[in-house]
Structure formats: C-alpha cells, structure tokens
C-alpha cells in the first residue's frame, strides 16, 4: 500500500508507478509452432497413458471409457462418410461405415461383459503391484524373505496371500506380532482389501526376487 502524501493547496504531486508484478508463463514464451508441437505431445501422452492403465480402473470407469471411445469414433466416421458421399458417388460407404460402427458397439459390449466376468473371478495382479507389496513386506526388519506370494485383482482392489520367512529364534507370540504388524501395514493401502499371511522360519534360500517373478509371469 502506498503511503499517504499530504498535498498543499495549489501544489502538484507526481506519483511514480509501481513496478509490474506480472510474470510471463512458460507457454507465453513459446512460438506458435512450438506450442502446437507441445500440445500434440501432451495429447498423445494422455492417450497412451489412458490405454496403458485402463485395466486398472474401476469397472464403471472402464465402461464409460469404452462407451465414450465408441461415441467419438462413430461420430468421426459418420462425419467423414457424409463429407465423402456428398463429394463423390461412393454411396456404398454409408452402409460400410454403419456396419463398422455396429461392430465397434459389439466389441465394446463384449469387452465390458468380459471385464465384469474377470472382476468376479479375479485375475493376477500386475508385476509392479506385486513388487510394491513385496517391498512393503520386506521393509520389516524381522522379515528375511518371501517364500510364496499370490495377489488377485478383483475390479480395482487386490487380495494378498503370502508366506513370509522370519529370522530364526522368535517365539510363537513374537512371530504372531510381526505377522500382524506386516498385515496392518499392507491393509493400510487403500487398494488392498484383504490380506492373509503365513509365517515360517528362514530356510536359508532366497525365494523371492523381481527377476524370478517376471520369469514366472
């Protein structure tokens, strides 16, 4: 705020403008062509990421994604068909595109039904999810190895079953405390809804490695 200035009668007072606080953004420093190239890269990246991780979304989200995809493709095909048939005599294109849009709708209906069936039965979790769970288990200082691990994905949630190895010498009570501590750590993850853990003493053999996991799957 500017300090108040007392002005005598008949005296002129000149105010010096404050320096501008406006800062130019990153996009304003780009040329039009650079802005277009960057926008295209962003759109392509969003599309690739969407298709890459669509299987991890909730069933309702996947349904909306596939439906909107068919709507956009169908509208695009219909618009191109109208333009082409109005400029050429290729009238059969109208029927071909209609059949194509119908096939797209059939594929989406089949995909949604298949995803719903898989959600009820369950599928194996992705590698990165299994590695994340394994790191949480091995982060406990008393856990030496993972003898077995099985993670089932149902919808967007995961069920974890694992047999973990502990350092030798623990009593049954202490081993149970360690198991419950690891179980609480896993169940704290919002994507994990159920955890079943078994415990054994370390057998001296390294059973779990990321390389072995990738070979199995």
Automatic annotation (TrEMBL):
Tell me the GO molecular function terms. Answer: monoatomic cation transmembrane transporter activity
Give all residue intervals belonging to the Cation efflux protein cytoplasmic domain: 126-196
One Pfam family in the UniProt entry: ZT_dimer
* Annotated TM spans: 63-84, 90-110
Primary localisation category: membrane
Tell me which UniProt keywords the record has, alphabetically.
Answer: Membrane, Transmembrane, Transmembrane helix, Transport
Where is this protein found?
Answer: Membrane
Q: Classify the protein's membrane topology as the record does.
A: Multi-pass membrane protein
Question: Is Metal-binding a UniProt keyword of this protein?
Answer: no
Question: What InterPro entries has UniProt attached to this entry?
Answer: Cation_efflux_CTD, Cation_efflux_CTD_sf, Cation_efflux_TMD_sf, CDF_Transporter
- State the GO CC annotations: membrane
Q: Which family does it belong to?
A: Belongs to the cation diffusion facilitator (CDF) transporter (TC 2.A.4) family.
In terms of PANTHER family, this protein maps to: MITOCHONDRIAL METAL TRANSPORTER 1-RELATED
- What protein is this chain from? Dimerisation domain of Zinc Transporter
Q: Which organism is it from?
A: Aneurinibacillus migulanus
């Amino acid at each position: 705020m500017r300090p108040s200035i007392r002005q005598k009668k008949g005296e002129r007072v000149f105010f010096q403008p404050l320096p501008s606080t406006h800062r130019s953004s990153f996009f304003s420093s780009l040329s039009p062509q650079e802005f277009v190239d960057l926008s295209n890269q962003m759109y392509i990246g969003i599309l690739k990421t969407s298709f890459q991780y669509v299987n991890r979304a909730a069933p309702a989200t996947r349904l909306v994604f596939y439906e909107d995809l068919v709507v956009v493709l169908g509208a695009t095909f219909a618009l191109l068909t109208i333009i082409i048939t109005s400029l050429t005599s290729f009238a059969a294109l109208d029927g071909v595109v209609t059949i194509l849009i119908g096939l797209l709708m059939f594929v989406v209906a089949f995909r949604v039904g298949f995803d719903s069936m898989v959600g009820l039965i369950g599928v194996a979790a992705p590698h990165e999810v299994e590695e994340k769970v394994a790191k949480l288990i091995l982060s406990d200082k008393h856990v030496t190895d993972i003898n077995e691990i099985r993670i089932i994905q149902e919808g967007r949630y995961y069920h974890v079953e694992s047999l973990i190895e502990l350092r030798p010498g623990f009593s049954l009570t202490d081993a149970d405390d360690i198991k419950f501590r690891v179980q609480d750590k896993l169940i704290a993850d919002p994507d994990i809804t159920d955890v079943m853990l078994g415990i054994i003493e370390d057998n001296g053999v390294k059973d779990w490695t990321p390389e072995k996991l990738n070979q199995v799957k």
